[in-house]
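JOB MANIFEST
job_type = single_chain_structure
chain_count = 1
residues = 232
[input]
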Amino acid sequence: MPGAERATSRSTWLKRKPHSRQRAIACRPPSAGQPAPAACLDAAAAGLTQSFEDALQTERDAFVRLMDTPASRALRHAFAAERAAGKIADLAPGTQARPVTRVGVIGAGTMGGGIAMSLRDAGIPVVLLETTAQALERGLATIRRNYAAKVDKGTLTPAAFEERLAGITGTLDDAALGDVDLVIEAVFEDMGVKEQVFRRLDAIAGRAPSSRPTRQPWTSTRSRLSPRVRRT
């Protein structure tokens, strides 16, 4: 591209998409705290305002600087952790995955409601357990409201909205978890509360039907909580 035409192109681009404005947008949540989006814009602007060699050096300097940021280390950790999570060291070759056709979620708060929605999005029926009717009604209302927002945005059809909600069974009775394949606890972050929940789950497992060969107690008050917690 001739020099004059290239200079005109640069000027036109900068007027149409002011660098400072785009950079401010890139630094808004959820990108706040992530330096890469703004650095990408800086590199693009450098390619339009600097010589080819200087722009390459600007991009290289940004790349090296970003490699040593907390965000970069966190992203690399997440990348490796996601892949490691699918590899279980002591799992025998040929082990068949257990079918999960129904899941219990204990706690209908922010976390429990989100977990229930994720399970429903995957087509899995959910039993949502709470300790009080008020807490259960509040949690179910929040789930309904969140799904309604998806309908309003056009990301969920009205039929799918009804299907998602129909697959969530709210309950105050621990015994309703007796026929689920998996239980996820999402209760208040208090060790005493969690210990009580796991003991209740052990009791449910002991009363559950023995039609499934895996119906031995599937919970523990020590294996997943804390070395300090001991079964009584």
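[summary]
The chain has two domains: 3-73, 103-207.
Residues 3-73 form one domain.
exit_status = 0
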